[in-house]
């Protein structure tokens, strides 16, 4: 690249990164404000959960009538990154925003990352036609949109940039995408946190033990558990989605049936612990022992909610699952409870999304850099033991190296069978 091309590259992405950061950061800020209102209203008016089936029909019908390809959600962003065939429709932003707010207001169990990422990607892609971007630059602006959405919704700009690069370009990160992703993430985070004044939940690891060999070795079994948990979460979501699609052919009816069963679960369990984002429970996981089954209940309810067709994201429920699983492991693993909760927080996320670098950096941004070695090992082990699974069915994992024993055994048996034939 000569000096003129380099200058054009820097100028172009300073402008585009600023615009995408303003758009994605503003969208996330508005989303978080409305989401907080929806959560507070639901918790003070529990009866509203009985209307979840009606909300489910509204969401399902909206996507069925107006969604077109937007129904693919995050997978649409991945598909367009790999193939660059069709523009991301602008309608994706209001549809996912509207659908997620309804899901949380009426008691579904979902997250918020998917909404922010989809809004960031769809808004960013609208600039493609105005700046006449070629397919290569369009890929970069999609990455920038994802980085801005993720960074602003969680308040983690470095992790947001790395997540977009690692998630969308698995093991093939290109240097041209680095500056746009980081710059956009910084702008979006500033817009959300400073310009709009939207805060984020603080988490604390109050004690980090010495980096002795024994302490670091104890991270390995924890990381394996986090990897299996991430795999379970991903496969459960795909399982329920497949079952609903198989047995209920009319899409708007799927979240109606799902909503009825979720409302029944809340009624008979007499608990709202596992619906919504579950942030209060996540905070508790860093402070006090919790029931061992919390992580399993959240996995089941969230995968069922999303599989039925409700909208939102998977990442905050993954935080819940990981933090509570780490909390439960404190009974057997002699590491501080808060550290195990923090390791699980990012470890299960790493296993389910195949983004160990982003998860490690996110943990250090949220919990402090002192715990970085423990977090990094946990994320790497979880990534290796989660197999070739992902909450995103379109994620390209052909080049992933993994240590999932079940797949290894099945591959050996398959190879032997082929040799015999």
From TrEMBL:
One of its GO terms (cellular component) is membrane. It is a multi-pass membrane protein. GO terms for molecular function: chloride transmembrane transporter activity. It comes from the Bacteria. The chain crosses the membrane at residues 6-34, 46-64, 140-165, 177-196, 216-234, 255-275, 325-346, 366-385. Keywords: Membrane, Transmembrane, Transmembrane helix. It comes from Algoriphagus antarcticus. The keyword Lipoprotein does not apply. This is H+/Cl-antiporter ClcA. It is found in: Membrane. InterPro entries: Cl-channel_core, ClC, ClC-type_chloride_channel.
């Amino acid at each position: 690249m000569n000096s003129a091309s380099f200058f054009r590259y820097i100028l172009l992405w300073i402008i585009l990164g600023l615009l995408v950061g303003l758009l994605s950061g503003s969208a996330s800020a508005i989303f978080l404000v409305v989401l907080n209102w929806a959560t507070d209203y639901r918790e003070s008016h529990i009866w509203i959960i009985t209307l979840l089936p009606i909300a489910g029909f509204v969401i399902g019908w909206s996507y069925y009538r107006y969604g077109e390809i937007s129904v693919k959600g995050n997978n649409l962003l991945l598909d367009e990154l790999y193939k660059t065939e069709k523009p991301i429709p602008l309608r994706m932003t209001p549809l996912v925003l509207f659908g997620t707010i309804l899901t949380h207001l009426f008691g579904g169990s979902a997250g918020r990352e998917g909404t922010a990422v989809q809004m960031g990607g769809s808004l960013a892609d609208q600039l493609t036609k105005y700046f006449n971007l070629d397919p290569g630059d369009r890929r970069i602006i999609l990455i920038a949109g994802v980085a801005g959405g993720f960074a602003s919704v969680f308040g983690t700009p470095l992790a947001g940039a790395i997540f977009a690069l690692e998630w969308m370009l698995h093991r093939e990160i290109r240097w041209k995408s680095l500056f746009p992703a980081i710059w956009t993430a910084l702008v979006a985070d500033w817009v959300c946190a400073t310009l709009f004044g939207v805060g984020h939940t603080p988490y604390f690891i109050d004690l980090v033990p010495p980096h002795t060999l024994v302490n670091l070795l104890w991270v390995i079994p924890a990381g394996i558990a986090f990897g299996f948990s991430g795999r379970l979460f991903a496969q459960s979501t795909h399982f329920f989605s497949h079952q609903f699609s198989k047995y209920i052919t009319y899409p708007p009816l799927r979240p109606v049936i799902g909503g009825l069963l979720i409302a029944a679960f809340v009624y008979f369990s007499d608990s709202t612990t596992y619906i919504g984002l579950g942030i209060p429970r996540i905070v508790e996981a860093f402070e006090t022992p919790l029931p061992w089954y919390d992580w399993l209940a959240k996995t089941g309810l969230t995968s069922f909610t999303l599989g039925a067709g409700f909208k939102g994201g998977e990442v905050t429920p993954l935080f819940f699952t990981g933090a509570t699983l780490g909390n439960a492991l404190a009974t057997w693993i002699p590491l501080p409870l808060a550290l195990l909760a923090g390791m699980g927080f990012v470890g299960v996320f790493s296993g389910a999304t195949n983004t160990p670098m982003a998860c490690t950096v996110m943990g250090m941004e949220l919990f402090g850099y002192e715990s970085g070695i423990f977090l990094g090992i946990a994320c790497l082990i979880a990534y290796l033991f989660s197999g070739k699974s992902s909450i995103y069915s379109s994620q390209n994992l052909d080049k992933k190296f993994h240590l999932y024993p079940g797949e290894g055994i099945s591959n050996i048996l398959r190879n032997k069978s082929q040799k015999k034939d």
